[in-house]
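Tokens for chain A. Residues wanted.
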């Protein structure tokens, strides 16, 4: 993935390893967790490529020199009455990684913003499949499906962007949206852009960061529980295995270089749903049926966490 503000850890070379014990262990989390039955860079050596020209049409280039000068509409949330359900009274923020319009606003998204323990680019364009299906289109589609599933259970759902702004939001603003909403859980949806042969999903957890405007001490533990429950349900619902190149076959990876996590004051994780540059993973990511399964797996993981 070429996302937000990252330089992923080094890939592990070699053939695909999908040990039964790792997948079974994650899936087994659903058997003991309450509610489970019924949630800016690339890996070194990754193939790179521009976001697809087939992406949703982008607004004309803004003349604004910095992200702060651009329009910044409110985060998107449904105004319709919500049914009462097991998640009534809970707020979930869904963060669709990147924005289809980023490709038309490279100057703005390259502007440096605070990430809590340093500075990084406002955002990136994201990656794409070899056939040109953009990560930004994937993340928005899965996020909308996820919103529908969570709202059906009574949750208030806020999207950091819903294709309703020319670019961004920047990584620091994405964190502020979750904080302002006092979200019970925040999930940032992505897909990776690693090398062919690297397959599977992984969930990124916040590391302990303290200083220079970031303090994740209160969210590290609940974020890990959120991530573990999402990973377990993602395995069960989609049938996908944990990543064979990040996370040591656990499906979990802890990071301290992502502004969206460093600046969060509420439980938050990222999920990389698969590798867009691997043909087998790409076939899943471009399937509407599989994207619905991905949304369901994430939704059930979130629900399990909130109902614990």
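Reply:
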């Amino acid at each position: 993935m070429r996302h937000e503000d990252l330089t992923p850890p080094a890939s592990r070379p070699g053939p695909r390893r999908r040990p039964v014990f790792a997948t079974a262990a994650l899936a087994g989390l659903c058997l003991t967790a309450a509610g489970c039955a019924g949630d800016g860079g690339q890996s070194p050596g990754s193939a790179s490529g521009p976001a697809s020209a087939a992406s949703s049409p982008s607004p004309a280039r803004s003349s604004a020199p910095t992200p702060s000068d651009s329009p910044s509409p409110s985060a998107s949330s449904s105004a319709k009455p919500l049914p009462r359900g097991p998640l009534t009274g809970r707020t979930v923020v869904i963060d669709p990684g990147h924005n289809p319009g980023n490709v038309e606003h490279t100057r703005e998204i390259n502007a440096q913003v605070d990430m809590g323990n340093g500075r990084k680019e406002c955002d990136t364009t994201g990656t794409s499949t070899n056939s040109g299906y953009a990560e930004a289109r994937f993340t928005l589609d899965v996020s909308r499906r996820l919103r529908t599933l969570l709202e059906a259970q009574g949750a208030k759902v806020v999207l950091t962007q819903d294709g309703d702004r020319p670019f961004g939001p920047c990584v620091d603003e994405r964190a502020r949206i979750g904080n302002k909403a006092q979200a019970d859980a925040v999930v940032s949806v992505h897909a990776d852009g690693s090398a062919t042969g690297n397959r599977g999903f992984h969930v990124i957890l916040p590391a302990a960061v303290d200083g220079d405007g970031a303090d994740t001490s209160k969210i590290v533990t609940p974020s890990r529980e959120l991530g573990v429950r999402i990973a377990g349900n993602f395995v069960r619902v989609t049938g996908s295995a944990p990543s064979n190149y990040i996370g040591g076959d656990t499906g979990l990876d802890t990071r301290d270089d992502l502004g969206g996590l460093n600046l969060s004051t509420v439980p938050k994780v990222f999920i990389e749903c698969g590798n867009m540059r691997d043909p087998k993973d790409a076939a899943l990511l471009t399937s509407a049926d599989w994207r619905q399964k991905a949304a369901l797996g994430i939704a059930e993981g979130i629900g399990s966490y909130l109902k614990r």
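The two ends are 31 Å apart (CA to CA). The longest strand covers residues 185-192.
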